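Escalation from tier 1.

The customer reports that the assembly of two entities below gives different structure tokens on two consecutive runs. Tier 1 could not reproduce it. I'm attaching the input and our single run for tier 2 to review.
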Amino acid sequence: MPNYEPVLLRNVGVENARSIDVYRSRGGYRSAEKALKQMSPDDVIDEVKKANLRGRGGAGFPAGVKWTFLPKDRKRTLLCVNADESEPPTFCNRVLMEEDPHQLIEGTIIAGYTTRAQIAYIYLRVEFHEQFHILQKAVDEAYAAGLLGKNILGSDYSLEIYLHRGAGAYVCGEETGLIESIEGKRGWPRIKPPFPAIEGLFRQPTVVNNVETLANLPHIIERGADWFLSIGPPGSSGPKLFCISGPVNRPGCYEGPMTITCEELIMSDEYGQGMRGSVPVKAVFPGGTSMGVLKGDELGMKMDFDDPRNYGLLGLGTAAAVVVNAETDIRLVLRNLARFYALESCGQCTQCREGTSWMYRIAQRIENGAGRVEDLDLLEEVAGRMGMMPGLSICGLPDGATFPVRGVVQKFRAELEERIRNQDPGKVEAVLAVLN
Amino acid sequence: MAKITIDNKQFECRDGISVLQAALDAGKNIPHYCYHPGLSVVASCRLCLMEMQMPHPKTQEMGWAPKLFPSCQTPVKEGMIVRFDSDAVRDNQKSCMEYFLIDHPLDCPVCDQAGECHLQDYSYEFGSSESRMVEQKHVTPKKDIGPKTLLYSDRCVMCTRCVRFTQEVSGTHELCVTNRGSRNEIDVFPGLPLDNPMQGNVVDLCPVGCLLDKDFLFKQRVWFLKSADSICPGCSTGCAIRVDQNEETVYRLKPRYNPDVNDWWMCDEGRFGSKYIHDPKRIASPHLRRGLERESANWEDLPEVVRYRFEQHVSLRGGDKVAVVLSPMMACEEAWLLIKFIRGVAPEATIATGFIPTDGEVQHFPAGCDAASAKFTIRPEKCPNRRGVEMIAEQAGGTTCDFDTFVTSAAGGAFSAAWIVGGYPSDWVSKEFGKAAAKFDLLVVQDMFENALTKLASVLLPACAWVERDGSFVNHAGKIQPFERAIRAPDGANRDGQYLFEIAGFEGVYSAERVRATMAMETAAFGEVLEAPLKPAHQH
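Tier 1 run:
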């Protein structure tokens, strides 16, 4: 995409871009001023709805529509900014907060104004130590400049921003887990209904938005919905951050329209610049691991909100692709995936708590050369018996475990069977004897 | 009343309840762990999932939705159609049961819960006999979490009922979940044991053998236990309880569901406070004093002897010198029989209410709440039937008084003959009262343990513990609640009701129910007693 002009990352590389002065000198906070002074909250909602800004957190739910779920007669609204970016290979939010913290604050002000929130919590994963300090400094600067606190920019709108740091749980990225965590409780997702828009944080109507979603707001306000719609394909409009990691020549976080394919993301000079050592691609997890896996011959998938479903994926997710090259043993991939979900399952729902840990134990045994072909069926069965889509769990975490594990077993079954056939039969017997 | 269809059959159910509760009310056996009607809904065990008909998003045609729904979390709605008898539901139940046993030690032979374990029952009914899990089990530790409770976390199914109980009912917040995922464990906070006046309920709530009662541990296999429906005599709340015994030994007390009194709960004081039942020091046979000697009497002659002595006394000294003290530990029927007898021989006799043991302050739970929002209350009046004996005395008419007045008048020499009923688990006779009692020429004492009074008695009758009797208690709120006999009186003793029945001039075998029917002719209130629901709203 040679003539793509970066929007979200436009300040990356600019000297001292984190400071409020530099941010303002490059047009920052003009959108917030425009929203607060020239637009009503409903105008902003209309504009965002028109732009069809879909949530960047993973599910792709239209942000403007989400805001309209708030009860009309509410007395208070709370805004939570989800910066608990814990999806494996994902670091878009991190880049946004590190490089351009004021863009997030401006987006938060606009979202807060639109939802009439007086308080916004930015929930950061605990590992964001450096990002926390960067963001805190930016918040302090914004307060000093009258952009936060009482009567922002002379309007009658007031907003307080608090940074809240998590305690290291993946599940706290789920919106109700995040809410429980802010309340100081164990990060166990809540049963729904009631949905957060009706009864969320501290039992008040609450909106939870992703960092990247909010970072888009100043640009929509500044340039209008039509500009936003002109980027990317219909249904997946606007700029998007993509992460690429694994054995590629240039791993990193890039911005582009959602017209690119997975292959472009890996191979194009703008992005990954091809595989290291030109080793062919064996597998790609294109949307964070939770969305599922693509085989090396499925790289034509478009990185938009809709196309991944055609490849048996859960969705676009965080658009963070991790590449596995042809030299990697797929058993390692399987074990590593299963391990993550076993460690991160919160342990509330039976199927997820026990299923993820069982899958991990099976995957470990397969990796250690004591697998059985029937284990693959068992893995598929266990993976299929969890998640929110079949109604078996409270949150979507187990769906995120199902898609990659089942995906790997289904799409790489031939290789797995091959490797199991080539195991030392004596070892299999020995391992199973010890276990039993 | 909403009409809903469960498994092709229509049921009427109360409004505002969950589908699971409606199905349980309709007599269906729907497996569930985390759901308990007395606690908040968390919908996390995922065993009670059901299928539900919903309008198709495009055609609006009603059909089975392509996913399962937690029935505990879904409120009933008029016209709702659900089913539990489908393959999808059964598949889920089966896989859940397999999951629950993944890290379970399968140590039923040494587990106290065996026989009343819902992991056993559900595995048998909904699970499969084999596990496909060949991996090593993750073993979690056995923990001593408090003075009365053990936690075998390897048997836990993470229903979190116990945690929610300490948060929502006892309000003491001792229990929590630690760690994450399959490493989850229930635990207490460091240095803060599970020690609150209601903690025993967590053992009842535990659907499996994870939380164990130290008092009951390894004492009995539950299938040997026989139960009787009883009322706790520990305080004036009058909780409905179940007495579990085997071969005339009481092993444990468990709460029975009674929405009008105690819901599903009981306090530790009631649960563990009746060890005196099996105290070898109990008075177990009747004694008569002849001159200075006290000798044992036989039950056959006793009614006649007692009646004769009273009649003699009244003819010599007059009926107004006779007093009877009704203990609040007595059942209403016993008090009524005793009055029947006394008024028969001495119509002018004074009827006094007995000593009312009290201890501490009223305790409302969740801890720190007020009476209006209390889910459970422990009362300072440590006897079950003050209201009952007062009612009986009042209805008998004539001269009545309270215990303090009685002691003062007795000290002043107002009475020369008295029948004093005790039956308290601990020594209750004060110095002044002992002194006053020495003035009686004829003293019948009915008590459980030897004390200053029993030494003075001309006739000493053993009082039985409430588990050895049947009758009814009237609780603080005036609710008349019957209780059954659980075990026989100790060898040599006779239950109070039986000998009072005979002394009062009746023949045959005492039955509290029949006496109550007679009483009802005088006092309509006794015609209708409060029975806890036969079928509890919740089986476990």
